[in-house]
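Folded chain entry
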Amino acid sequence: MRTILKMEEALMFLFGLFLLWPLGLAWWWLLLLFFSPHLGALGYLAGPRIGALTYNLFHHKGLALALYLLGVTSGQSHLVLAGAILFAHSSFDRMLGFGLKHTDSFNNTHLAVIGRSSQTS
């Protein structure tokens, strides 16, 4: 099951990149902007509850699709770009096993607990 989910996220990642194609942007824009959703992690400076809220907001596929569709219908290419980047990035993260954050710890995600265990062996 885990492999199927990772393959599904990989295909959504590729679809997110495909959504960028009509914009005709130079490839370096993707490199520059692809990891920008991680700016949501700055909320952790205010604590784990705020951090989880901001991180999850910047990694929410529903928000990504809403921005993309709003951009397409209104002709606002910057919203199309933001939505496609958020969608592709979120899919990429989930393909690697990084999920949305729970409020108790950055390492506790909806997919699994990530990172090193706090217990020593």
In short: The chain has a mean pLDDT of 87. The two ends are 29 Å apart (CA to CA). The chain is about 55% helix and 5% strand. The CA atoms of residues 36 and 80 lie 15 Å apart.
